[in-house]
Here is the input.
Amino acid sequence: MFHRRLLLMMTLMLLGSAVLVAQMMRLTLVKGEGLRVEAERALVTSRLIPTVRGWVTDRKGRELAVDRPCFDVTVDYAVITGQWAYDRARGDAYREHKARWRELSPEQKDELIAPHQENYDEQVNALWAALAGLPGGDAEALYARRQSVIRRVQSMRSHLHSAWAKQRARELDEPVALRDVADPIRDEHQPHTMLPAVSDETAHEIRRWRARAEDGAGLAVFETVHVEPALTRVYPFETMDVDVDRSTLPPPLKSGVRQAVRVEGVATHIVGWQGKAVREHIERRPYRHADGQIDLGGYLEGDRVGSAGIERGAEDQLRGMRGRVVRHLDTGVEEEHPKRYGGRVRLSIDIMLQARIAGLMDPSVGLMRVQGWHKNAGLPMGTPLNGAAVVMDVETSEVLAMVTRPTFTRGQMRDATSTVVDDPNQPLINRPIAAVRPPGSTMKPIVYCLAATRGLIEWDQVFDCQGYLIPELPNHYRCWKYLRFKLTHGRLGPVQAIAQSCNVYFYESGERLGAVRLVEGLREWGYGRTTGLGLGEESAGLMPSLTRDNPKGSELSVSNARHMGIGQGPLSVPVIQVAAAHAALARGGHYTAPRLVMDDAASSEARDLMVPARAIDNALAGMRASVMDPNGTSRGFSASWGRHVTLNPPSGVVCRAKTGTAQNDSPRWIDGNGNGEQDAGEWFKADHAWYVLHVQRAGESRAKVVIAVLVEYGGSGGRAAGPVANEIMRALMAEGYL
Here is the structure.
């Protein structure tokens, strides 16, 4: 009996040992790696070191966007959520009723907490009111920031808890509930910025608050406010004061007194601005990968990230790499991974030239308002006009200036977003690259080169302009001269056809080319395709599609070809493409894609368009005659004060130009009574005005720069856009380019 009991006890002991051994083997062999990782993680802490974002400069090294040291005012997360007041009140109530606290129900505890919480709530309200009263403070903006912080932290907490649960489940090879990993995340223990980039005076005032809070009762909440060194993104040339020389303006605007113009939003669309990283950025480059590996350049929610312009386009180059300090608690050893600064992005624009052009295009100067000499019956007199200008270096295709009007400042976008977004003038559109308009007669020299290159017209081809293309259809395909004055150009070759902008000559050239060859050829000249400037909002324009399924452009007609020959019909392009095509013409028929980022190998698209030299010479001679010949459309215009000569170049400078008056069927709304409603009589139609100017320095063999100007709803290109181009030429001279 005894032996049986002993054997039973030994059997039970062996079974128990087997269970322990099996569990030991499971923990060491099966789950050992996961548990080891978890144990090691508990013995390691890390601290991130912020990086410095790269800087953006203009071609001469002037800083257009740069990180600068500053102070941020931060507030503890518990105060932001309101938890601080409750925790403080609960602590007071507990101390008063400590002896019976455990016996109380939750409802009874809340009753005891409530009187204390009123006091702390008043403190918190006083804190927010004090912050709102500081320079740069605003009650609504502070509330919005608080809500934004709460949403961001809660979203991050949910995301991290889910990720932790999945990771723990993989390590332990068994399901893990969210509550088992629902520890507070780092952001719940840290203060968050409520007033960014405050002045030194404001920082000192906050420090005085904290000093008084340590000495005075009822001010405890002010101890949760901190002044922390930080970095802020500054744009030093966003607002500039420029002097506009009025001595060369048309007589009604002419003055011997220079005008001071404050230009706001200088190059805002080009340089861009920053925002906060969102899920898209985090998924593209996460800080912590699924396998646990850390990328110090990866994104965390709330990171600064480029949102527009080159800040966005060059994000990977501008973004730096955080530093990281890892401390091993068991040994006390620290490992430091130093931060790496972001790189420099040098733009081709000259910010001083950009500001000068933006200044002369300010409506206060008068060139960008409807004037009597425009003879534009479509819009009320004095109406501000919108538009764009591009200045391109012919040798390099570098963009020296790219101005859009109207524009806005980053502060306006931040503080009055709806005002900017809802503005009927659409200041958000970067017009030089994103607003597409029919190029009108600016395309005629290009169409001539295309037809001559393909042998469809002779290089010295003569056509007879009788006022309209088809004798049997005198009301169709008319020349502008016949339409306006019932006059004809008669027989003329390419030089005079370009100089006098004869529609019939280019209706015929377009017809001989045919729509398909026109589309193919224009694409070679850069029309209908993005230029690759690095700004995401660039438009390719609108051109007929020639796809693999439709190589012959079956939807195109002879009528399309004729109208495209004069820059009309199914064709609309941004200003940058017009400038690039004319730079190719000035270059002798060699196309090079425009460049905005200097030393950017990606902007190296170039091709020889194989245009015969005689055709190039004729096209340029036609543009020269357009300026010099009394009948040239670029030379000048009749006005109430007499004949006005459009261009006033410095001595020795050679100018070639082409006007464009693009027919436009889209009306513009002008809120005449200011009520924000689209009332009857507030819609107006007018043509778009173009002027392209090639400027050549004395003694050089070809143009130095090409200037392309678009004045939307301006009417006549020579009358509305020509004077703007003239002043841009003068600005180039003032900045030393001519």
Notes: The mean pLDDT is 89. The radius of gyration is 35 Å. The longest strand covers residues 63-76. The chain has 24 helices and 25 strands.
